Amino acid sequence: MAKPSSPTPSSDAFTPIRNVRLYETIIEQIAALVEDGQLHSGDRFPTERQLQEKWRVSRPVLREAFRALEMQGIVESRPGGGRYLRAERIPHPDEFRSLRLSSDRETLLQIWQARETVEVKAAGLAAANASRAQLAAIGRPLRMLETMTPDAYRRGDVNHDFHTAVARASGNPVLEQVILDLLGRFNEAGFKDLPPAKDWDGLQADHQPIYDAIASGDPKAAANAMTNHFKTLHETLED
Known about the structure:
12 helices; 2 strands; two-stranded antiparallel ribbon; mainly alpha
């Protein structure tokens, strides 16, 4: 005798899967500790090493989580004195992200100005120094950007890979490290959540002239193309 079939869940039972970044999981755990009364405003957090061992995460991920909390005034970092909780409630990551977008626009603009200064120089150097392999590394994320949707872009690191490849092709490891640090800070401040759909085509198109100028070995054209790219997104940030 055949077993009766189980009822099929309604379509309302299925909800979209939220993309979770690793540092957001840390924030969620801290929020749970606060909600359960295990962590209170004024409490000092364990050391970085202790938290790395407990959460089994890398130091950069741990610091990304705390930087995000510090930018909202939720955590206070004292040089040589550790980190302290300064709030009675931690927003959910979705709410947290929207808060960052409203309060950190000035931070985004400041990081953007710093990025423009160093990345324009890096593009010019890349045009003069890039090897064939480095050109291929710049081109790979560019080809992905051409067919990528805004949602897919926000979930990935394709833009990061493009700018990192340009920085690496500059041949200046110090400049490369500065750019990597600024890219990380820019993403933490909320850039991946910013570009509205109406600006997406422009953001994609801006990368091609940078690659073309670097591939042609024209430092001046590469620097100009990178400047134009920053100008386009600067207008987006100020909207």
